[in-house]
């Protein structure tokens, strides 16, 4: 009788499999990082999820219709600041350029940099709420115990009045939340000068 030959098992190239896995994971990580700025750009262009728009010019016309803008200020964990609007609300005409001021104060003995996230409510208003200038466009750095007044210049697009879904909307809430943007740039003042060693 001849010897029975069992079929050969396919050889697995573990090196190739590992390389494919590494490329796949790297691609997924890259996509996740790219998704954040792309989503932010999408929100700024469309006003989706209450994200306000950045404008370069004020409207040519001002409507007689008015809206009341409420201002809300919040602080994220780990920042060590106080943050509040200097006016709780203001009534503006559609197309009218207005300016609001917020006060931020660093209550720590460190120099701290913060960045502000923002949105408006109701969400549908985001497509019509435009900022000409805002402290939220750049990071803000405060030295120990420093206070600063931070401004936002904005208008509500007159096209707001043509949106049937907003016919009964007369109040808009503009909300900011400051988060830490970078680690503390300096040590506490008490620890700045180490005690001299005795020899």
Which segments are poorly predicted (pLDDT under 50) over 5 or more consecutive residues?
Answer: 29-50
CATH architecture of the domain at 50-180: Sandwich
Assembly state here? single chain
What characterizes the major β-sheet? 5 strands, mixed
Beta-strand proportion: 35-45%
Radius of gyration: 27 Å
Mean pLDDT: 79
C-alpha geometry:
flat
Spatial strand order of the main sheet: 1-7-9-5-3
Q: From N to C, what is the helix and strand string?
A: HEEEEEEEEEE
Tell me what the structure shows.
The chain is flat. It is an alpha+beta fold and 199 residues long. It has one helix at residues 14-46; strands at residues 53-54, 66-75, 81-85, 89-93, 98-106, 112-121, 129-134, 140-142, 147-156, 171-180. The termini are far apart. A 5-stranded mixed sheet has the order 1-7-9-5-3. The protein has a 5-stranded mixed sheet with strand order 4-2-10-6-8, with no helix packed on it. The chain has a domain at 50-180: Ctag/Cox11 (Pfam 04442). 17% of the residues lie in helices and 35% in strands. Mean pLDDT is 79; it is low at 29-50. The protein has 1 helix and 10 strands.
């Amino acid at each position: 009788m001849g010897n029975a030959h069992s079929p050969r098992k396919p050889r697995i190239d573990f090196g190739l499999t590992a390389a494919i896995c590494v490329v796949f994971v790297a691609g997924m990580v890259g996509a996740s990082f790219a998704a954040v700025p792309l989503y932010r750009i999408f929100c700024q262009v469309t006003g989706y999820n209450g994200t306000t728009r950045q404008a370069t010019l004020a409207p040519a016309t001002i409507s007689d219709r008015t809206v009341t803008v409420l201002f809300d200020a919040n602080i994220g964990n780990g920042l060590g600041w106080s943050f509040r609007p200097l006016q709780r609300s203001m009534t503006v005409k559609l197309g009218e350029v207005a300016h609001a001021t917020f006060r931020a104060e660093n209550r720590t003995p460190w120099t701290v940099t913060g960045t502000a996230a923002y949105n408006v409510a109701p969400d549908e208003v985001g497509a019509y709420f435009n900022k000409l200038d805002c402290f939220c466009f750049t990071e803000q750095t405060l030295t120990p115990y420093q206070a600063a007044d931070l401004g936002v210049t904005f208008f509500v697009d007159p096209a707001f009045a043509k949106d049937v879904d907003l016919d009964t909307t007369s109040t808009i809430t503009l909300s900011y939340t400051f988060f830490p943007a970078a680690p503390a740039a300096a040590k506490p003042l008490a620890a700045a000068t180490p005690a001299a060693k005795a020899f």
